[in-house]
Specification:
By secondary structure, the protein is mainly β. It has 11 helices and 85 strands. The strands form 25 sheets. Strands 25-26-27-37-36-33-34-35-29-30-31 form an 11-stranded mixed beta barrel. The relative contact order is 0.05. Keywords: Basement membrane, Calcium, Cell adhesion, Disulfide bond, EGF-like domain, Extracellular matrix, Glycoprotein, Repeat, Secreted, Signal. It is found in: Secreted, Extracellular space, Extracellular matrix, Basement membrane. Its main location: secreted.
């Protein structure tokens, strides 16, 4: 019977979670504990985070073990950690191992295409009155210490928590102990430091009887001067990749020999709240243990770069780059090849004496390094002009990139050659004499799948102000770097000259201190032989902020060498005047001689180098079930669909994935239920709105019993829904009914014909046709001429349907318009939430479309909710078809155009091929066509609403087309091109003819566009000029609606209001265009960028065009013009036998 003393309690059972912890009771929702320590429940966190094992690679194992060898090893760790206490000899233990677990989010895969994975282990050892926790982390370090949960970066945690305990009046926080802090460095330190005298091994006393105060950590933080025997390091470690004996004459061992079966933790079925939890309370668990050795190349060769090799040493292994490459062996890049660095910049910076900070987040940093010249170019975009000029002196934001890839004097190494691409740089800048301080933290996260180095930069503090319009001059400088174990430091004082707009100059100064921390491999001689000091020389410095583009640019040339200077730089390799190809390395010779040698993966004489296509040279180099992709200077192997890299990270093996029964259609949910995937092979059935039951059996709810309709309306129950219809004499949508109603088109038509009055009332002209209206005022489907006797069918607008006219005495068969049917109530599907009656705003936000109902012109923000959810998609444009109640959208991750009925229905792909970057989309609800822009193909295209009859309308003189608007009633099309060099707004007829530029002057980035047919106003929002403007396209008059808007993207008009989405405010903003002011703002609960926006009208706008009836008599595309229509053929006219006509 297994028991554990846990803080001041006695626990008989516990639960193991794939998220890196053991709990004393069932965990709550992940959102309540991820990134938080302590949680509200009892937890022993070995390394807690949003982890998973569902990819078939990561696994979690546990076992109970009381074998003598296991207990002896546990006793050694405990007694070493508490040397002053009496000797401890545990009587039983439980071992839990998390092997190769990774995150749910996307991870940088490194230069070898490997997804980052962590392995760690927890041992709970107990005796009669005491329990201990022993946590082990691998020698090669923690591979990732944080992850994205939603849009938030969450740091992993280790520690202990009792959870909530009952107080006198309520529950209060119980005892807890944190091993890590909210700093990622504390997480990485778990594998580098100790409290037990052995690196990466941590021991804690977690419970005693009968008295206990709190968790007691081990008391030996010092590391031994020499590495311990390898068998101590490998203690309890297990791996799915090394299931073989350590000794040929002994059985499989791990922490020593075992003869039982291993138990693997699997996701629990039908537990959507905690899908990956298993409870362990069986007193007899038959287990086995697998062993692995983290200290040799046999099990770690795959952790080296594909351009590296693994070498064994007495105390472990190290990775080294092969000839022609440089780096730390884990990450290697080709000598002489240009490098790229990408990342994001976050900041909260006070400028000068300003009391308010300038904040920015997720802005882009891009760098290009000409390695054989030591020249680095860095650009940071989207910086506000309130802070951009004041950052110009801080060229050392990019200086660390220069240091990493600096030109090397013979015998000296740049940063990347020594420590590779995973390190943390912390710098403090103090401006003189104002004493403003700025902290810079940069996390270099290794090489991604595109062979680009990834960096995250954070700026926090205050900088000396540099006025907008000033220029900065920085003199060349040198700084000494001091190297010591896992830490590199440097400091310097730098002068710079500020030239103000009036021509005056100021010489200023700041002090600079920085530390660079990294994980090195000290088994080999590489780091031991590293020079303790090196000097970085930086010249040809350039820094400028461009307010028009909100962009700051840095450029600098860096060289690393002797602090004493040495010989003058006469060799062209060190001056950059060598003439070698940018993909070549310059080799220093005697005196001023040198040679150019093409980088690995390139061929040529060194002055001209050409990429080698390794995939063409050896198509089978990646092996079976793999695809070889050639890249400049290298190639990449990727597994085919249904395969993934095995434990060697090179062989593609078939994926044995859990079955998503919802997607496969093998679930047992009711046809009237939603199937929700719950991880593993689990799913949950939930009855749709309008039905009730357990999800496997769902019955219709009779909404008419709940008085859902207006008191002056009749309710009709339907399956899963209901309809409401105002009683005769009332008008409305059934949810709101008012006495009387406005005259319909048919009634107005009839009155106009009968408008001639005589002594006996209205007298129609002799021989005139008088339309017939039904009880609701709509056109009867069949109309007849009272004088001639001819009859014919009409559509709902009263237009004659071609081919239906009959002679006297005959009646055509006309189809009922169903115009009297009331609006349909909610009828949702699994991924579409039906809209309530009325007018709504639809807007895109990453992988979802949300809606805000409108009450009049006011946004009913409390009733806002998602309509459509498409995970891992990026939706750009949104449009609405008021006829079929259909929302259309464009998305760019897998370029496509799709649609879904907002009253319920599955999302349907309309166009999924021949697209590259579809953005803006517009609907002609009269002609039943759609128009869209493609910013990669630089053209505008049209198609029928089902995706057929595709035709390119405009394909010349477009650079960055985005927003597009259709005016079906007048037959016009409008679009915006945000080409930074020559932005413009254009128009044409809907058939593409009569194209002309409407606006060309005083534009910056015209992102949003909308047209109001009632006022004939075309309006746009410009993220460059930060203005909203309108004009009458027919008259050319132009007026400003609002200034100082921030970063608009999409816009739509409804009545007096214009609604637009803003990237900086993450909001939908309402603007009263007549009052020229903002009237409201809505910020969704999820704060991310908002894209396109459209109005979903309760009823279609009034109007018609020549294509609204019978497709205008066209065989394929009917495209309206102001005075007619064009019958156009799709681009595959020959295949469909189409002939074009114009009317």
């Amino acid at each position: 019977f297994f028991s554990v003393f846990w803080i001041n309690d006695f626990s008989f059972s516990f639960q193991i979670n794939t998220n890196g912890f053991v709990a004393t009771k069932e965990p709550e929702s992940e959102l309540t504990y991820l990134g938080k320590m302590p949680p509200k429940f009892g937890m022993i966190a070995a390394l807690q985070g949003d982890l998973h094992t569902s990819d078939g690679v990561g696994k979690v194992f546990f076992r109970e073990d009381s074998s003598p060898d296991i207990l002896r090893r546990a006793a050694e760790h405990i007694n070493r950690a508490f040397p002053e206490d009496d000797e401890i000899n545990p009587t039983h233990a439980v071992v839990v191992t998390w092997v190769d677990v990774t995150t749910h989010g996307l991870e940088s895969r490194g230069d070898s295409g490997i997804k980052k994975r962590n392995t760690f282990q927890l041992v709970i050892a107990s005796l009669e009155t005491t329990s201990y926790a022993i946590v082990l982390y691998p020698r090669d370090g923690i591979k990732f210490s944080s992850m994205l949960v939603g849009d938030t970066n969450v740091i992993m945690h280790a520690g202990f928590s009792k959870g909530l305990v009952r107080g006198f009046f309520s529950s209060i926080k119980g005892p807890y102990y944190r091993t890590t802090t909210d700093d990622e460095q504390s997480v990485r330190a778990l594998a580098e430091e100790t409290n037990s005298g052995l690196r990466g091994v941590w021991v804690y006393e977690i419970g005693t009887s009968p008295f206990f105060s709190n968790v007691a950590p081990g008391e030996v933080p010092e590391l031994p001067t020499e590495a311990p025997p390898q068998e101590d390091v490998d203690a309890y470690e297990e791996s799915s990749a090394a299931r073989r004996p350590l000794y040929p004459d002994r059985p499989v061992v791990a922490y020593p020999p075992y003869l039982q079966e291993q138990t693997e933790v699997h996701p629990v079925q039908f537990q959507p709240q905690n899908p990956e939890v298993v409870e362990v309370d069986d007193p007899i668990i038959n287990v086995d243990v697998f062993s692995y050795n983290l200290g040799s190349c046999a099990n770690n060769r795959n952790k080296c770069s594909k351009f590296g090799e693994c070498r064994d040493y007495a105390n472990g292994y190290c990775c080294h780059c092969i000839s022609g490459f440089y780096g730390n062996g884990i990450q290697c890049v080709a000598e002489g090849k240009p490098q790229r660095v990408n990342g994001k910049v976050h900041g909260r910076v006070f400028v000068g004496r300003s009391p308010s900070p300038v904040e920015f987040a997720n802005i882009d940093l891009h760098s290009y390094i000409v390695a054989n010249e030591g020249r680095a170019y860095v650009a940071i975009s989207d910086l506000p002009e309130t802070v951009g000029p004041s950052l110009e002196p801080l060229v050392s934001i990019s200086g660390v990139i220069g240091w990493a890839f600096a030109l090397e004097h013979p015998g000296f190494k740049n940063g990347f050659s020594i420590i590779g691409g995973e390190f943390t740089r912390q710098a403090e800048v103090t401006f003189m004499p104002g004493n403003e301080k700025l902290n810079i933290r940069q996390e270099f996260k290794g090489i991604d799948e595109h062979d680009h180095l990834i960096v995250s930069t954070n700026l926090e503090g205050r900088v000396a102000e540099v006025p907008l319009g000033s220029t900065i001059k920085l003199d060349p400088y040198s700084e000494i770097y001091q190297y010591n174990n896992n830490l590199i430091t440097s400091s310097s004082t730098r002068d710079y000259v500020v030239t103000l707009q009036d021509g005056s100059r100021e010489t200023r100064r700041y002090q600079w201190r920085e530390t660079i921390s990294f994980n090195g491999c000290y088994h080999s001689e590489t780091l031991r032989d590293m020079k303790p000091t090196q000097m970085l020389s930086v010249d040809h410095i350039f820094a400028i902020y461009d307010p028009a583009q909100r962009l700051i640019r840095f450029a600098l040339t860096s060289k690393i060498g002797d602090i004493n200077g040495g010989q003058p730089e006469q060799n062209p390799c060190l001056t950059g005047r060598h003439g070698c190809d940018t993909n070549a390395v310059c080799k220093v010779g005697e005196g001023a001689t040198f040679t150019c040698q093409c980088a690995a993966g390139f061929s040529g004489d060194g002055r001209a180098c050409y990429d080698n296509d390794e995939c063409r040279e050896d198509p089978q180099r990646c092996g079976p079930n793999a695809i070889c992709n050639n890249q400049p200077g290298t190639f990449r192997c990727e597994c085919e669909e249904g395969y993934q890299f095995g434990s060697d990270q090179r062989t593609c093996i078939k994926v044995d994935r859990p079955v998503d029964h919802c997607e496969a259609g093998t679930h047992t949910c009711s046809p009237h239920a939603q199937c929700s995937y719950a991880g593993g092979s689990s799913y949950v059935c939930t009855c749709l709105q309008g039905f009730t039951g357990d999800g496997r059996s769902c019955q219709d709810i009779d909404e008419c019993q709940q008085s859902r309709c207006h008191s002056d309306a009749v309710c009709y129950n339907t399956e899963g829904s209901f309809t409401c219809q105002c009683r005769p004499g009332y008008s409305g949508d059934g949810f709101q009914c008012l006495p009387g109603r406005p005259k319909t088109r048919c009634e107005v038509h009839r009155e106009n014909v009968l408008g001639v009055s005589g002594p006996r009332g209205p007298q129609p002209p002799i021989g005139a046709y008088i339309p017939t209206c039904d009880n609701n005022g709509q056109y009867e489907p069949m109309q007849c001429h009272g004088s001639t006797g001819h009859c014919w069918c009409v559509d709902q607008n009263g237009q004659e349907i071609s081919g239906t006219r009959t002679g006297p005495g005959s009646r055509p068969m006309c189809i009922d318009h169903n115009t009297g049917l009331p609006p349909v109530g909610p009828r949702p599907r699994p991924d579409v939430d039906a809209l309530t009656p009325g007018t709504h705003l639809l807007f895109a936000q990453s992988g979802r479309i949300e809606h805000v109902p409108l009450g009049g012109y006011d946004m009913k923000k409390n009733d806002a909710k998602p309509v459509l959810h498409l995970p891992e998609k990026v939706i750009i444009g949104v449009a609405y078809d008021c006829v079929e109640k259909m929302v259309y959208w464009t998305e760019i991750t897998s370029p496509s155009i799709s649609k879904a009925n907002i009253e319920g229905g599955e999302p349907t792909s309309v166009i999924s091929s021949g697209l590259e970057s579809p953005e803006g989309i517009a609907i002609d609800h009269l002609g039943r066509t759609m128009f869209w822009t493609d910013s990669a193909k630089d053209h505008i295209e049209v198609a029928s609403l089902d995706g057929s009859n595709r035709r390119v309308l405009i394909n010349t003189d477009l650079v960055n087309p985005r927003a597009i608007i259709a005016d079906p009633s007048n037959g016009n099309l409008y679009w915006a091109d945000w080409n930074r060099k020559a932005p413009k707004i254009e128009t044409s007829y809907m058939d593409g003819s009569n194209r002309r530029v409407l606006v060309r002057d005083n534009l910056g980035l015209p992102n949003g566009l909308t047209y109001d047919p009632h006022s004939s106003q075309l309006c746009w929002a410009d993220a460059g000029t930060q203005k909203m403007e309108c004009m009458d396209p027919g008259r050319g008059s132009r007026s400003t609606v609002l200034e100082r808007i921030q970063y608009p993207f999409g816009m739509t008009a409804f009545g007096k209001n214009i609604y637009y989405t803003d990237w900086r405010r993450d909001a939908v903003i309402a603007v009263d265009r007549y009052a020229s002011r903002e009237s409201d703002e809505f910020q969704p609960q999820k704060r991310t960028r908002l894209y396109g926006i459209a109005t979903a009208y309760a009823q279609c706008p009034a109007g018609q065009n020549y294509c609204s009836g019978n497709n205008g008599g066209c065989s394929h595309l009917c495209l309206a013009t102001p005075n007619g229509r064009s019958c156009k053929c799709p681009d595959n006219a020959a295949q469909v036998g189409c002939v074009e006509r114009e009317y």
